[in-house]
Amino acid sequence: MKETPSGHKPADRARKVKMLMMDVDGVLTDGQMIFTNQGDELKSFDVKDGTGITLAHRAGLLTAILTGKCSQIVARRAKQLGISFCRQDLRNKLEAYEAIKEEKGLSDEEIAYIGDDLIDIPAMRRAGLAVAVPDAVEEVKAEAHLITEMPGGKGAVRETVEFILKAQGRWEELLNKLYGI
């Protein structure tokens, strides 16, 4: 993780996080859009990100997907991973962010948000911990408290979960409990 020069201590912010919200294309995937001759869209998800989300759940963190596109593949992956909220076809991610925050009774500082493109900026500005992937657009990186080393679709979500759980002092205990490490 690379801290941005925002002057805010990301680890201090991460200690308060109770929910991780994330974009899909460019965050949970590498952002490529692949279509078959039949017009079906294909997406590739990293297994390490899936493990990271599972670890987040085991540690008691809530998770949410906020995406501007609509895809059965995303709904299936969200269900497979037990992601609490999967909001698709969004034109305004901040509205979905606020609705989920209100439903769960959370404050902004209890939310981490991972994004990569312009549509993510309003939610990132509200979130207590704003995270960008390294190939995010410059405007998104400028809003981030942290920039992952791993790119979207290649472990960025896992890296973020690990950062949060380490900041909260729960990473080692979780690994020991689950894997005897």
Brief description of this entry?
With 181 residues, the chain is an alpha/beta fold. It has one domain (2-179): HAD superfamily/HAD-like (Rossmann fold). It is built from eight helices and nine strands.
Strand content: 15-25%
Number of helical runs? Answer: 8
Secondary-structure arrangement, i.e. CATH architecture: 3-Layer(aba) Sandwich
The helix content, as a percent range, equals 25-40%
Distance between the termini: 23 Å
If you average the pLDDT, what whole number results? 94
What's the structural blueprint in terms of helices and strands?
Elements lengths: L1 E2 L6 H5 L4 E4 L11 E2 L5 E2 L4 H12 L3 E5 L5 H10 L3 E3 L5 H12 L6 E5 L5 H6 L2 E4 L5 H6 L2 E2 L8 H12 L3 H9 L2
Helix pairs in contact: 2-7
Plain-language structure description:
There is one protein chain. The chain is built from 8 helices and 9 strands. A 7-stranded mixed sheet has the order 1-9-8-7-2-5-6, with helices on both faces. Strands 3-4 form a two-stranded antiparallel sheet. It is α/β, with parallel strands linked by helices and 181 residues long. The two termini are 23 Å apart. It has helices at 10-14, 47-58, 72-81, 93-104, 121-126, 138-143, 156-167, 171-179, and strands at 2-3, 19-22, 34-35, 41-42, 62-66, 85-87, 111-115, 129-132, 146-147. It has a single domain, classed as Rossmann fold, CATH 3.40.50.1000. The mean pLDDT is 94.
